[in-house]
Amino acid sequence: MDAVRTSRQLTQVLRHAPGSVGVTLDHAGWVDVPELLAALAEHGLALTRTELEEVVTGSDKQRFEVVGDRIRARQGHSVPVDLGLQPQAPPTVLFHGTPVANLAAIRERGLVRGVRHHVHLSPDPETAARVGARRGRFVVLEVAAAATAAAGHEFFVTGNGVWLVDAVPPEHLTFP
């Protein structure tokens, strides 16, 4: 089993295209593990429960969570789900890694969620750099998170430490 390839396929199914393998996420993004494993096997990715759990626990990003016999992606969905997260006061500063090619649009509009439910922010510049580096040349933006919250934007934090917000206005960003 190729854990990276499997993680990418799980990300696609659990965040964006559950129907691509014939599963349906519940309102909170959960699907039964046996149902998911059967659907993946029917679509060319045969995994055991143990292999699935190795991918889930072995990922440094901790993108997925398993509770009992259910699994879901922690964040990053483009399909409708309600993760049930409660608003949290963010730290003063958070970080966002992004490709250099996005800078002009971000300077104009700020950080916007696009097709996802939220903008994803990191608690430290190192994590943001790892996120940004996935797509080539990148920069790390500093986000005045407390100021963004004071301007009326709600923040949420996931079980793997990713901060979520609907948008960050450009005036709350520090550009390199």
Question: Uncertain runs with pLDDT below 50, 5 residues or more?
Answer: none
The CATH topology of the largest domain is what? ADP-ribosylation fold
How many strands in all? Answer: 11
The helix/strand series, from N terminus to C terminus, equals HEHHEEEHEEHEHEEEE
> Any idea of the CATH class of the largest domain?
Alpha Beta
Reported CATH architecture of the largest domain: Alpha-Beta Barrel
Q: How large a portion of the residues is in β-strands, by DSSP E?
A: 15-25%
For this entry, give a set of tags.
2 domains, 176 residues, Arc Repressor Mutant, subunit A, ADP-ribosylation fold, 3-stranded antiparallel beta sheet, alpha+beta, 6 helices, elongated
Overview of this structure, please?
By secondary structure, the chain is an alpha+beta fold. It folds into two domains: 3-73, Orthogonal Bundle (Arc Repressor Mutant, subunit A); 93-174, Alpha-Beta Barrel (ADP-ribosylation fold), CATH 3.20.170.30. It is built from six helices and eleven strands. The protein has helices spanning 3-16, 33-42, 49-58, 103-109, 125-132, 145-150; strands spanning 31-32, 64-67, 70-73, 93-99, 111-112, 119-121, 138-144, 155-157, 163-165, 167-168, 173-174. The protein has a three-stranded antiparallel beta sheet with strand order 1-3-2. Strands 4-7-11 form a three-stranded antiparallel beta sheet. It has a three-stranded antiparallel beta sheet with strand order 6-9-8, with no helix packed on it. A hairpin with a 5-residue loop joins strand 8 (155-157) and strand 9. Helix 1 (3-16) packs across helix 3. The longest helix is centred in the first third of the chain and has 14 residues, at 3-16. It starts with a helix and ends with a strand. The relative contact order is 0.15. The mean pLDDT is 92.
